[in-house]
Design brief:
Largest interface: A-B, 25 and 21 residues
Radius of gyration of chain A: 13 Å
Oligomer: heterodimer
Structural class of chain B: mainly beta
Shape of chain A: globular
Largest sheet of chain B: 7 strands, mixed
Order of helices and strands of chain A: EEEEEEEEEEE
Helix content of chain B: under 10%
Helix content of chain A: under 10%
Strand content of chain A: over 45%
Order of helices and strands of chain B: EEEEEEEEEEE
Number of strands of chain A: 11
């Protein structure tokens, strides 16, 4: 079973609307969690990193939350733009060289 | 600043032909280097990682091999490609080994025909 589960698998939203992506993990112990954005045909780019003590972190219109007790994270996109169309990958580090990748949330923003 | 270069961007190769993908990092010393493969609808699969020159760790048995002839150079190779080797290959580097703080290359789309 994958240690990082992301939902929804894919999402279509209208330009200007908000959306929230979910990441549930079972990795333990927990070191940090990152969200990456991967444009089609490109390498992933880090958006945010959150450690155990952090509950929320923003990067422009992207806001990530973390609940380390329930082992859940979310990525909220505000006022979506066409350039937000991408795959968003949740990556959880458990320390001691353990790293688990989610399969990604595919977001398509339509005008 | 650190940069990572990966080439070629796309490659179409016949079954049974050799493969060589190259990745170089600039602006840092002794990076941890990685090769990942990403299949459609699936997550990133770690193929190889290297913590130093000549040190290669293989994560999954496969038709591919990796080498690190220089500190900031990582090469992915195959002697004879299979159809199942098709995919999107990503090189990455990090300061801490197998830490989530990766910087990825731009990827190589390999199609084996």
């Amino acid at each position: 079973k994958n240690q990082v589960e992301q939902s929804p698998q894919s999402l279509i939203i209208l330009e200007g609307k908000n959306c929230t992506l979910q990441c549930n993990y079972t990795v333990s112990p927990f070191s940090n969690l990152r969200w990456y954005k991967q444009d089609t045909g490109r390498g992933p780019v880090s958006l945010t990193i959150m450690t155990f003590s952090e509950n929320t972190k923003s990067n422009g219109r992207y806001t990530a939350t973390l609940d380390a007790d329930t082992k859940q994270s979310s990525l909220h996109i505000t006022a979506s733009q066409l350039s937000d169309s991408a795959s968003y990958i949740c990556v959880v580090s458990g320390g001691n060289n353990r790293l688990a990748f989610g399969k990604g949330n595919q977001v398509v923003v339509i005008p | 600043s650190q940069t990572i270069h990966q080439w070629p961007a796309t490659l179409v190769q016949p079954v049974g032909s050799p493969l060589s993908l190259e990745c170089t990092v600039e602006g840092t010393s002794n990076p941890n280097l990685y090769w990942y493969r990403q299949a459609a609808g699936r997550g990133l699969q770690l193929l190889f990682y290297s913590v130093g020159i000549g040190q290669i760790s293989s994560e999954v048995p496969q038709n591919l091999s990796a080498s690190r002839p220089q500190d900031r150079q990582f090469i992915l190779s195959s002697k004879k490609l299979l159809l199942s080797d098709s995919g999107f290959y990503l090189c990455a580097w990090s300061v801490e080994v197998l830490s989530s703080g990766y910087t990825f290359g731009s990827g190589t789309r390999l199609t084996v025909v």
